[in-house]
# Entry
Amino acid sequence: MCDPSRLKIGVHVSISGAIDLSVDRAVDAGCNTFQIFTRNPRGWKFSEISEEVRRSFLRKVKSSQICPVVDHMPYLPNLASPSEEIFKKSLFTLKAELYRCDQLEIPYLVTHLGSHMSSGEDNGRRRVVQALNSALEQGNRCMILLENTAGQKNSLGTRFEDICDLIDRTDYPDRVGVCLDTCHAFAAGYDVRSEIGAVLDELDSSIGIARLMVIHMNDSVGDLGSHLDRHEHIGLGKIGEDGFRHMLSDRRVTERPLIMETPVDERRDDKGNIKKLRELAGVA
# Structure
């Protein structure tokens, strides 16, 4: 059970070597929440999770008291694709990830909504709803979180009302939530830098704040409304330290797991971004 009094800050962690090693890396980085891919994110093929690795992962998560763990869909699937072949492979991957989340007792699976590939938004939305319904009818415990996008050409899920429409059209709305990415929101034109209260009010009126389960805390290389999906270190992008300090003053932000998908380079590593975010939250 997660401790609601703790500020939950973490990063996306590598599973290189074995999935259970991600917990060790998360502990070493100073995470008390973290995100993983359960498999190679750049391919369609994957190996089954062995019982030994499954048990080790669960044991390490429990002993570390890290909570929650979040899974992210691989890069290749496109749930909005007009291609029957790509759609079928994407749906198979979604179903497989939900099953793997249940194996690992991971409560949330974050997914991008994909691109309609010039087939039209209505066609893309129908595809996504079809995929969600087909996957969720399996009865998995894991909740699917729809991630907002930066507004790239042909992408779905840029506006809150679009995400709300998808959730409302599913047969299982109680099992679909939202992951808000701060970089994507900022690039899409939502001013999380100075108007986080108004942005969250809009999310609440469109989707319902209770559906916001996870926040990806990423700074942005691109400016407000640039539609550029490029993440930057906390405080070093266009959102900046004051922007994150402002976000972290809103309880609707600090009550959620905050997971960074920031670069690792000569300027800063994961530990450095965790330290910076905690500093800006006033809990360094």
About this structure: The CA atoms of residues 77 and 89 lie 7 Å apart. The beta strands are 9-11, 34-36, 69-72, 108-111, 143-147, 176-181, 212-216, 219-220, 231-232, 258-260. The chain has a mean pLDDT of 97.
